[in-house]
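ingest -> validate -> predict -> emit
validate: passed (alphabet ok, no gaps, 31 aa)
predict: started
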Amino acid sequence: MLSEIKAGINKMEIIIFIYNFLIYLIFIDNK
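emit:
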């Protein structure tokens, strides 16, 4: 059970990281 929660958190962190990376690229392109 605990390992499943940790895996879910890791997936969320990866998704957030990708989102932030895309926003960063868009921000740089707009400059």
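The chain is about 95% helix and 0% strand.
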